[in-house]
## 1
Amino acid sequence: MIQGESLLLVASLVMTYLFFYYGVFVLKAERRMMDVIFNSFIYGLVIWKLSYGIVHPNMVLENPLTLLYFNGGVVGLVLAAVFIVFYTYWHLKKEHISFDTYIRVATPIYFGYWIVFLLWKGSGFPEDRFIWLQAVVAVVFFIVSSRMKTTRKLWQLFISFHILVFIFSSISDMTKEATSQQAISNIGIDVGEIAPDFELMTLKGKKMKLSQFRGKKVILNFWASWCPPCRAEMPEMQRFYEQYGQHVAIVAVNLTNKEKNHQAVETFINEKGVSFDIMLDEQGTVSKKYEVITIPTSYIIDEQGVIRSKHVGPLSYDMMKRTVLSE
């Protein structure tokens, strides 16, 4: 299944290609300067994506496919940013391109990438009007910055944009919190609602309910043994469980109705050394109740049984630390 991050990467690459020609034909930038902007972004993207191998080399050696599904997180972003700064500085000096000229061209392209990011983010939270409002602001700033000629005004635009993003994000967070408090008595699968309870048999042959984990944070994960990103995700979940299992429960619901047989599930679990319980959704009733379309899909549930977030695509160890422990 294609996950959100992959869609963002594809969209970014397509937009990079379009921005290249936008810079050359609309902004009248020299091709050599657009090469610097284009190459710095592409190389930075590759470094960010492959940095997972630097942060977790053992996991990559054990399963090289993890490079497809995970990234180096904050460390990867820092490495990519440092590379882009030094790469850009070196090539501006080498090509004798003035910094002011570079800023004039790079600023609207920067806002263009923000448009892509916010549209991608908004697709995951269509009800959050503040994300869409930020996207509209990014479009306006993109248009305005394309017509500005002075570096000082572009810097002012850059700072103003980030102040607005911070304000809108803060208002969005406060609105979500208020909505969650209002919806906390409702049972449903939306953020802020109480996760619907269910009972399933585990791979070990015992009955288990979601509600028995009240008092703990829960990662409710839907997966299948034949799903490549699920296979990459499971060792990450096991590592997280070994570290934080006393405080966070992992409820892994296998889509057994889509498996060949129980043996395929058991073989995979034993092969990966998974020690948390695996629940078997043999009729597909639970995955249907939670409207699971793409796997893996995970719901982060708090100690009171309230859904705090939903994630489509594989979760890495670092993502689980960041999202689960901060909820």
## 2
Amino acid sequence: MTGPNATSTSSPTAKMGRHRSKSTSGSTYCISSPGAESASLSTPNNAGRSSGEEEEKDGGVLFYVNRTGFPIDGVTWERMWTHVAKVHPDGQDISKIRNAAYLPKHPVPSVPNFKPTMSVPDWLLAIQNYMKTLQYNHTGTQFFEIRKTRPLCGLMETAREMIRESLPIKCLEAVILGIYLTNGLTSVERFPISFKTQFSGNHFHHVVLGVYCNGRYGTLGMSRRQDLMDKALTFRTLSDLVLEFEDSYRRYQHTLKKVKIGLYVPHDPHVFQPIEWKYLVLNAARLGREDMRKELEKHGRDMRMKILKSSSAQSPIKERSRGKSLSPRRRQSSPQRRHIHRRDKSPAALDRKPAELSTLTDGYQIRI
């Protein structure tokens, strides 16, 4: 279930009370209920993140990550049940689920197949519907570990594992899965968009996959709220898209604090280079709406011209075919140098020293 109005064909009992995974599809499912949806953004106690620690907090609530892979080990398995009983609105039903004599088998969703007759919006809709069928993960334990510094080829292997296991996912997992399922669609550019918001003194983090095709922007993603995940491919500018998310957050009394825009993700799934998650960092609280719009529109123009496109997406052969040559200085450009020249439009950015590459992805929080 991914929104307050979403419906489910099977009960929470059928989704939660499955045996421990044996590396087969649909082996473990989480509770998904309207109560969890309505509580997600109206209170600060329903969020989590994935970073370098076993136990993390977002909005003041612990969040766990399954780092042992599949099959899920006994410690992670028991910890998941204990944790969801504490944080989920229907946690009192956990014992009933675990002790049930019979639980119906939950169907495994089929992976969408692209057809030449399908339009780009139809294919994006099919991908989003597939992720919705997987459902949103309300257990408080992220099933798939996503290390943002990991090479793209490794993250694509994790995406294949998501399809194989067919378990509920959260927002960061949805971004990786969305990249994997759109790799063959070369007319669509993909880039991450991250949000940091504040509610009742706590900070929350969220990420979606931005998409651009034929002069229009949209998004793919997962969230507890329908209007904080996928957006149709209808926005003329990047600023229109981002400000639409800000308006959605306002409906839940969340204040947008920061927006981070990454670079285009290469379509080659074998690239041994990490995703650029935050090339442009905007402090929404200090810039104001109009200044933020100007910066987003400038960045959008640059991206459309592919001025900012990651060097990993361009092979030397392609450069030579365009009559260009790579100078020794350009060829020696390092990922750290790209980070140093990343544009941070926060007023305090001028007083800060450039961060080292190892610190740029540490402590990243996810608000779903």
